[in-house]
Amino acid sequence: MGYVDLEYVMWHSDLAEAAQARLAQQRRDAELALQAEEARSARSAPSTLAPAARRRLQADMEQRQIDELRKLADAARQAVQEIAEAEGFDFVVHDAVFVQPPHDITQRVLMLMRQQAHR
Predict the structure, then answer these.
(1) Could you report the per-residue pLDDT of 55-69, keeping only the tens digit for each?
(2) SS3 for the chain, per residue?
């Protein structure tokens, strides 16, 4: 039996930090592009572009975040499965009230995800 703190993995792995940085940069880039478009639009004619464009930006960023979380969850699942098979675990849980330290594979999952990301 093994235990993994998936919430910790999803927020503190190298892949999670890289995804957060990538999403933040994409949001900044999209905001700058939107501001430039709004400035061009304001010069030429009043428009209702801004609210619609902001909604599209928000929807796009939400979809990108979902995609990043899905990739991260897949990488975590793959690492957990690889460790479980190598260790001969019958099952690995991610929610528990108490876990003896020898059963906690969270740090090993993080290390394996880091190794797999650099392959």
Answers:
(1) 888 899 999 999 999
(2) CEECCHHHHHHHCHHHHHHHHHHHHHHHHHHHHHHHHHHHHHHHCCCCHHHHHHHHHHHHHHHHHHHHHHHHHHHHHHHHHHHHHHHCCCCEECCCCCCCHHHECHHHHHHHHHHHHCC
